[in-house]
Structure formats: structure tokens, C-alpha cells
């Protein structure tokens, strides 16, 4: 399983109403230094209906302003429909909505050979 496939398998496991951070996904994939690679992998998501990349936010709970989600505030709209709570300043309430990172490790092959790309 390559790095992108590992990332996709982890993101598929984020439950509705929860979010994960890029760094959290990178750590779960085996290398906490790959947060930017997580972002790139999600940008080229091959199965948007199966891989809920909209559930990944930055470490401060900010959503993407990028076009990948259909324009500014579209990710927020998708998260709100998913049951995610936002703070008054527009960030995801990570205290309430951050995923615990409990993954089905049978599906995900962790490897120490992951390197920065």
C-alpha cells in the first residue's frame, strides 16, 4: 500500500460529525511530517464520494478556501450538514468534533518506510 492509499484508507474512517487534521492523518499514516502530502493526496482524491476529504481541516480548525470543495465556504456547508459544530470565529470546534483517531488497523498497513515526498 503506498502513502496516498494509506491516507485514503484513514480518511475513509473519519466518522460523520467528526474531523481530523492534516497532521493527525499524517501521524496515523506513519509519518507526522507529511501533513502537506496529506493535503496534496486529498486534492487529487480519486473517489470523492467514498473518501470524505471535506472532514480534514488544518490544526486550528480552519476549513479550506480552495476550489477543491466548490469554492469558499463550501467545505463548511458540507461539515455543517455532517453535524460538525463551529465556533463563533468560524473554526471547527475541535474540542467537540476532533476525531479520536481510532482506526481499523487491519485495513491500514503502517510502515516505517514512509518518507517525505
TrEMBL record:
<protein>
    <submittedName>
        <fullName>Methylated-DNA--protein-cysteine methyltransferase</fullName>
    </submittedName>
</protein>
<keyword id="KW-0808">Transferase</keyword>
<dbReference type="GO" id="GO:0006281">
    <property type="term" value="P:DNA repair"/>
</dbReference>
<feature type="domain" description="Methylated-DNA-[protein]-cysteine S-methyltransferase DNA binding">
    <location>
        <begin position="4"/>
        <end position="84"/>
    </location>
</feature>
<keyword id="KW-0489">Methyltransferase</keyword>
<dbReference type="InterPro" id="IPR036217">
    <property type="entry name" value="MethylDNA_cys_MeTrfase_DNAb"/>
</dbReference>
<dbReference type="InterPro" id="IPR052520">
    <property type="entry name" value="ATL_DNA_repair"/>
</dbReference>
<dbReference type="Pfam" id="PF01035">
    <property type="entry name" value="DNA_binding_1"/>
</dbReference>
<dbReference type="GO" id="GO:0032259">
    <property type="term" value="P:methylation"/>
</dbReference>
<dbReference type="InterPro" id="IPR014048">
    <property type="entry name" value="MethylDNA_cys_MeTrfase_DNA-bd"/>
</dbReference>
<dbReference type="InterPro" id="IPR036388">
    <property type="entry name" value="WH-like_DNA-bd_sf"/>
</dbReference>
<keyword id="KW-0227">DNA damage</keyword>
<dbReference type="GO" id="GO:0008168">
    <property type="term" value="F:methyltransferase activity"/>
</dbReference>
Amino acid at each position: 500500500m503506498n502513502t496516498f492509499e494509506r491516507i485514503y484508507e484513514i480518511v475513509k474512517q473519519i466518522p460523520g460529525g467528526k474531523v481530523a487534521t492534516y497532521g493527525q492523518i499524517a501521524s496515523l499514516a506513519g509519518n507526522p511530517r507529511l501533513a502537506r502530502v496529506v493535503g496534496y493526496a486529498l486534492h487529487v482524491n480519486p473517489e470523492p464520494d467514498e473518501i470524505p476529504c471535506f472532514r480534514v481541516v488544518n490544526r486550528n480548525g480552519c476549513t479550506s478556501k480552495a476550489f477543491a470543495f466548490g469554492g469558499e465556504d463550501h467545505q463548511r456547508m458540507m461539515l455543517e450538514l455532517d453535524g460538525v459544530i463551529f465556533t463563533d470565529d468560524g473554526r471547527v470546534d475541535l474540542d467537540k468534533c476532533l476525531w479520536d483517531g481510532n482506526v481499523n488497523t487491519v485495513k491500514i498497513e503502517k510502515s516505517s518506510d514512509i518518507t517525505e515526498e
